[in-house]
Amino acid sequence: MAQYETVIGLEVHVELKTRTKIFCHSSTAFGGDPNTHVCPVCLGLPGVLPVLNREVLEYAVRVGLALNCKIAGFSKFDRKNYYYPDLPKNYQISQYDLPLAEHGYLNINVDGNVKRIGITRVHMEEDAGKLVHQGTISTTPYSLVDYNRTGVPLVEIVSEPDMRSPEEARAYLEKLKAVILYTGVSDCKMEEGSLRCDANVSVRPPGSHGFGTKTEIKNMNSFKALQRALHYEVERQIGILEEGGRIVQETRTWDEARGVTLSMRSKEQAHDYRYFPDPDLVPLVIDREWVEKIRASLPELPDQRKARYVKEYGIPEYDASVITATKEMADYFEQCLACYSNAKAVSNWVMGDLLRLLNARDMDITRCRVSPSRLAGMLRLIDGGTISGKIAKTVFEEMFETGRDPETIVREKGLVQISDEGAIAAVVDEVLAANRKVVDDFRAGKEKALGFLVGQVMKLTRGKANPEMVNKIIREKLK
Amino acid sequence: MITIAEVEHVALLSRLELTDEEKRMFAEQLSAILEYAGMLDELDTREVPPTAHVLPLRNVFREDIEGAHLPLEKTMQNAPEREGNFFKVPRIV
Question: Is A20 in Cβ contact with B66 (below 8 Å)?
Fold first, then answer.
């Protein structure tokens, strides 16, 4: 089969976590009873007047700046007209030709190299209501509408068609999520819909410079779904082209259960949104000084933080990128370093045992019961020789389960390392007597035999013997 | 001149059902309206910035403070059909 090149661009919607909606005073709280977080403005009743929430503009500027965009000096809202029952007004207030921010970029990692993905634009708009179907959207007998989400503020972030594989698309979305989480304007929960992603996908045959006909894929509710849906869609399009067919430009929905994308062409044939400036909302003139103030207030973003960790703490790039992937994890790391200075030791534990346990429980680090000072306390127990690194793993798991302090766990469970030379020597004698052949091997120059003997001593002491001392004592005795 | 096909397209977008007679009538009327507005094309507007809004107002905001919601029963008064606390609508696609 000929090699096709995949071309992907993403449109990402992010809900901003303001207290109230974009154009009215209704609550944005997630999970209220259906149709209880609404008012005449977001229901689009006649005679109402939407007014922009000041916080929404500030949050959207933060996103634009964090994505390296130029912030417009003049911007406005437009009506995007279409009939769909999740929009009570039959139009969505969005931004068309004068978006808030344009010409940005985001750097992602592709096989160890940095790749720059262009950001076309960032604009503000209102979210639509939530539709509840029985089964799928195209087989349900009817749908139910909850307008609580109608009018929740969104930013839409449109990328350039710069991604060349489903993996790059996923890396971009993960990075985008990390950056937005750092800015603090959204909680970016894909499962709750506060981060949503549509993809424009096309393939082009070898040697082609233009773009192939694209399809738009919706309804991908996790990073994994995005990657799977894109793989499926790319294969589907190549299959059609290989058989001499043509790609139809259309919107398709990802069916997670069946692992396929399905056409969802609506009755309205062509997209004809008839955008026009919303006469209810006055234009925005954005003050440069205010924008610069917001820029100065932005927190350190993942890439900057990663570079600082490498430089300041001397940890490897890989460690730094894992730890800075979320702001919370990086904050935790720094809190540990405030009480303990060996950065590499901290990063090993955070990236290793801590992350493993969090992932196994599908937990967020904010819910971790091991406080930074207690993790530091445990590391000091290792350094001081009270526990071995191996025993520390047991202690850490206990800390993770119970949130108790390491000193108490070590004392109560009798996990204190045996560093008494006489006690260790007695066990060593026992092991040497029981393993004559291995002892002979070692004396004959088989260095590996030592490891076995050390292991036997550790086993008899249930891991509590100080391994360095065990090593030393065996060597002395076999000299 | 606006064609019958264009009237049909606009009618579809606006969810209007028109008779053949109405289509002919609206084609004529819309043509006349557009022709009249077309006079504006005679003006040289190269130096005039596009108008985004007719009022001389800029930057009108509200603070991010919660207010009262509409009581559920009032909200649901506008539901043509209802199931529980949801608006019930025909299948979309």
Answer: yes
